[in-house]
Structures are given as structure tokens and as C-alpha cells.
Amino acid sequence: xxxxxxxxxxxxxxxxxxxxxxxxxxxxxxxxxxEEWRRTPQTRRHVRYDQATADRLTRELxxxxxxxxxxxxxxxxxxxxxxxxxxxxxxxxxLDAKRKAAEAAERxxxxxxxxxxxxxxxAERSALGLAAIRK
Length: 135
Fold this sequence. Notes:
Helix content: 55-70%
Distance between the termini: 64 Å
Number of strands: 0
Radius of gyration: 23 Å
Shape: elongated
Oligomer: single chain
């Protein structure tokens, strides 16, 4: 029986990287089409499918669209691109804001925890089972 590959479905990361690659193409002047997006970029170029690549592509798109917004003075610089790019940019900004808010809350919690631990004596920390935890 010959080998088969019908069980090899792309992962969510691979799909996202493929999408980011085509959005990059659009910024370079290659128009975005659904047909192009459905084709895998492996037929056109070698792309590493890892988190570092996804992060790099996202940072580059974010930088270009942020600069475009500042230059145009409009609410969103993505309006000159395809609807797909505009939706990606809208979703990216919302998720980025949510991530920044979570990081700020975590920093605040660490400060509050450190302040609370600083008020405790070594005996109180020991009684609470926090003796090994540093301020």
C-alpha cells in the first residue's frame, strides 16, 4: 500500500503565516485575492512556519500600517488596502490593546504583591507559608 498524506492538515500557525505572507505581498504592491491566499506560499517561496516568523511578519505589518496611519492623518491607514488587510489590522489593534492591558494589570499586581510582602515580618511570612518567597 503506498504512503498517503491526506491526514496532513495545516496547523493554525501555518494558516496564519500563509495569511501574513499574502498581506505582506499586498503591502509590496501585489494585490490580494482570495484565490492567491488559498494557495500555499510554499509554491512561491520558502517560509519557516514557526512562532518567530509569525511574530516577525506581524511586527513588520504593524509597523507599516502604523506609519501609514500617521502619514495619512486618517483614522486608519489600512483603508487604502484590501478589505482583508483592513479586517486584519482592526483585529490586530484590538488584540494588541487587550494584551497591553493584561500586561499592565500584571505589572500592577506584582507591585501590589511586593508592597504587601514588604509589610510582613519574617515570622508572618513563615506562618503564611511564604517564607521562601522573596519580596
